[in-house]
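Sample intake sheet
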Amino acid sequence: MENQERICRWRLILGQDTQERFSAMGGSGLTAQQDLMDQALAAIYNQTSAGGFGNGGPGAGHGPSNPQITQWLGDVRSLFDKELVTVIQGDAINRCGLKQLLFEPELLENLEPDVGLASTILTLKEQIPKGSKDSVRYYIRKIVEQINRLLEQDIRRAVTASLNRRRHSPIPSAAALDYKQTISRNLKNYHPELNAIVPEHFYFFDRTSTTAANKWTVILDVDQSGSMGESVIYSSIMSCILASMSSLKTRIVAFDTSIVDLTEKSDDPVDLLFGFQLGGGTDIDRSIAYCEQFVEIPAKTLFFLVTDLYEGGNRAALLRRLEGLKTSGVTVICLLAIADGGRPYYDAQMAQKVSGLGIPCFACSPQLLPQLLERAFRGQDLAAFQKEFEKRKR
């Protein structure tokens, strides 16, 4: 990188007050585009100008005007990469007191879709003005569609591959005869005199796996305390994808100190997300006790506990309940977080105890969910998957 470019970058990072010092070091002035960048960044990171959005300085008291903010958002989107835009707009909301304007339709139309911001909006959803509800739902739907494009095909492929409905059964049934397999495997037994194949062995599809009583059950028990915002979004979208697959029975339950069964809302991920009440305490043991009623065939039940494991109820009872599920044959997985990045925040001591029960307990990026599902359905070693995942992160 050229020296002048380095100086310009540091000048943009450190702000307008450092211009004189950088000029003394031989730095040239900013280009027109860099000057626009400088103004956009100063609007939120320059602490001496009340966030840069107001005209009156610290004592103005009337807050930023909507036209200024929407123009600023437009400038930011045109000047910076998409990844930086989400960071900058998040900082603007957190640092400059823009939460009161977050539900303005003009502002939402200009916001770049971002999972972190969506979780903030869902936390504040009770404060949404009536006139902004459609704009808020549209913004949340944009996030949902974006994540859906990322996950849906891979999740469907993973489930279909692991629950192969074309597997064979030793039980003979004329209605379940696999003609293609039977003919191809017995071609060597063709009799010219009879002008026919005389099969030595017949192949039949396993129809039992398609009956309601033999379907896999997937239960997502999701912590809706305030720290779990992003995980709630990814869990909701995954549950809606799974619920749309006829080969599975899917339940989704939300909990804090109370329990809400949201399964009936799983037709629409946006409706499902608005069914969550982000914030509050946790009683994980109580929520698992509620979910136990949906375990019909333990060996065909996949139970996801999505929580940071900060238990507000009885910790010893929680461990006993998890151990009971595991011992009964249920595949239990604890996801401390489902998020794209950042250090997960969770109760490390409790996570260690849960792992000691033979229950994998880790944070997972959404892109790894299809692999996790496929391995779980196939009955593969999830502890090995966890170690592989942790090794990849280093």
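Comment: Residues 133-162 form the longest helix (30 residues). The beta strands are 168-169, 190-191, 196-197, 204-205, 216-223, 248-255, 259-261, 301-306, 331-338, 361-364.
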